[in-house]
Amino acid sequence: MTTFDPALIDAARTSAAWPFEEARKLVARIAKSGKKEVLFETGYGPSGLPHIGTFGEVARTTMVRRAFEVLTDGKVPTRLLVFSDDMDGMRKIPENVPDPAFLEPHLQKPLTSVPNPFEGPQPTFGQHNNAMLRRFLDTFGFEYAFASATDYYRAGRFDAVLRRAAERYDQIMAVMLPTLGAERQATYSPFLPISPTTGRVLYVPMKHVDAAAGTITFADEDGRDTTLPVTGGHVKLQWKPDFGMRWAALDVDFEMFGKDHQTSAGVYDRICAILGGTPPEHYVYELFLDENGQKISKSKGNGLTIDQWLGYGSAESLSLFMYQRPREAKKLHFDVIPRAVDDYQQFLGGYERQDWKNRLGNPVWHIHGGAPPAPEVVAQAGGAGENVPRTQITFGLLLNLVGVANSEDKAVLWAFLQRYAPGVSPATHPKLDGLIGYAIAYFRDFVKPAKAYRAADEVEAATLSRLAGSLANAPSDATPEMLQDLALDIARTVPRYQNLEAKGATPERPGVKGDWWKAVYQVLFGEDQGPRFGSFAAIYGVANTRALIEKALSGGLIAEHEAFMKGRV
Q: Staple partner for 133: which of 50, 85, 176, 437, CB 3.0–4.6 Å?
């Protein structure tokens, strides 16, 4: 049994971090119910390939689970069940399958009865998507048990509650009918039989429900009245009753879902109670949007897949994106990745210096289940002891380093880093090595095509020339801070960049306007924003930085980029 530092538990009791706020509700719940184990559940509809939203439910639920374990000092066992609604009928063909026509004859069949349109060992579409989900979740090391609706229905795991649903059919209908339009009310039934003749999931009215026998009678697709037991996988429930039935049958304590379910949550709860269960604690999160502000859909295949994110950013950066502001709608597109990568590093770098209260508000505690790793830092050459500058290399800096180095070879980029910090290597800094790979891929696919270099105007050209000259006189062991101050001192002498309103500014030592850095970034990097200049110059090298300035002022960077863009057409 895991136990926790008493100071950690004390801080957790008042932590404002949202996983702890939700976990405290669960502590109160089990105090009232007397349960000896807590079941967390997440749902997945395998009508299309898993997307990041599905991953997000598992990641966020795991964060609440870990927070609960701290609050109970590890004394209350927990389980996480990832439940796939793979018995649902395939109502439409996803747009991202290789051969849509192949699936047309199987519309309305349970997803685990639809043949697999992809290559692979799984015989059905539902099983293929389940395997994809599990592979994704296993990549992140989640602790979970997987459950298939098809398996649970067919194995009789829901039989007792399904019989109860037949007995309390009228009560369920009394909940459901007011939520439906008049036309739908006339044909609605919470039970969806699987046609014995066609294998399809049927949305048909019931002619008779025999509570004592546990059977339903309906008109099958061939027109004949057919009677089936509600048990053994012959019947499934409509999605709203199914939610409540599953909560009652499995005694679920916590489930989160997207805002699109929010108006139905009360229906789920009432049906759960009708079937003899206690509704779980809920957490409603906002939906993810694609680059056009549209809701991400599995069937449309818009937004990002997990594999796409992992091609450009770390697993930890994705987990950070899931942790932050779950009740705010967020755009989930490629352009959010760089900031997520760098924000994660910043949070990780500050963790060790924090007390328990602030650690529990730091996302990395939740991302790593309470055990964040030490950050990878590099130490600049030429110093010793505690005063040696140590820094985390940012994703933004690497993106610019890739650009100015004009190379997609990791070895070339490592050579710059090793000159700055001898002794570092892919072996000593594997996370940094991965970051370099992400930076190369992201720069190639997104940054380089979007660059917009411009020529310096007269004032900018004169100031940048003076900067190049000052860099020539910088000591060989100049630190990033020294090089940053050098660039600031050059700008302070130029009226255009002087900022007398800056904090601590004086006429003798004015502040520097952001216009200076904007000019540096636009002229040298072809972007409106960029890395901290001192850090960049220290790692890229003073001589190389001077050469970059000279190339920019001569028009070389503009000419190179124009040639690159012509080659893409």
A: 50
Paired residues of 84 in beta bridges: 44, 148
**What interhelical angle do 480-492 and 458-472 show, nearest 10?**
140
User: Which amino acid does the sequence have at 519?
Assistant: A
Which pLDDT band holds residue 554 (cuts at 50, 70, 90)?
very high
Q: Which two tokens stand for residue 394?
A: 């940012």
- In the numeric block, which tokens belong to residue 22? 């939700």
What separation in angstroms does the CA of 545 have from each of 398, 483, 520?
15, 11, 12
Q: Percentage of the chain with pLDDT > 70? A: 96
Burial class (CB in 10 A: 0-12, 13-18, 19+), 368: middle
User: Using one digit for the tens of pLDDT, what is the confidence trace for 260-287?
Assistant: 899 999 999 999 999 999 999 999 999 8
Residue 280 lies in a domain: yes
Domain limit, last residue, from 289, 304, 320: 289
Q: Sign of the CA dihedral 32, 34, 40, 41? A: negative
Same domain, yes or no, for 283 and 388?
no
Average pLDDT, integer, range 450-471: 96
Q: Is 553 inside any structural domain? A: yes
Helices 159-167 and 239-250, packing angle to 10 deg: 120
Considering the domain architecture, whether residues 115 and 262 belong to the same structural domain is answered as yes
Q: Rounded CA gap, 380 and 177, in Å? A: 70
CATH of the domain at 187: 3.40.50.620
Same domain, 448 and 551: yes
Instruction: Give every CB contact of residue 99 below 8 A, 6+ residues apart in sequence.
Output: 117
Place of tokens 């399809």: 200
Q: Is residue 552 part of a domain?
A: yes
Boundary (domain end) residue, out of 251, 269, 289: 289
Residue 504 pLDDT exceeds 70: yes
391 and 489 part of one domain: yes
The answer on pLDDT for 294 being more than 80 is: no
φ, ψ of residue 360 to 5 degrees: the values are -70, -20
What is the pLDDT confidence band of residue 86, given thresholds at 50, 70 and 90? very high
Q: What Rg, from alpha-carbon coordinates, does the chain have?
A: 30
Q: What's the CA gap between 491 and 460, in Å, rounded?
A: 10
Same domain, 259 and 399: no
Structural domain including 488 reads 379-568
Q: What pLDDT score does 297 carry?
A: 61
The Cβ-side half-sphere exposure at 215, using a 13 Å CA radius, reads: 10
Runs of H (alpha helix) within 451-529? 458-472, 480-492, 514-520
In a domain, 468, yes or no: yes
Tell me the residue ranges of DSSP E strands in 348-422: 378-379, 390-391
The pLDDT value recorded for residue 374 is: 94
Residues near 255 by beta carbon (within 8 Å), at least 6 away in sequence: 40, 41, 42, 43, 61, 247, 280, 281, 282, 283
Least confident of 135-139, 178-182, 559-563: 135-139
Amino acid of residue 326: P
Q: How far apart are the first and last CA of the chain?
A: 62
- pLDDT band for position 342 (cuts 50, 70, 90): very high
* Number of domains the chain is built from: 2
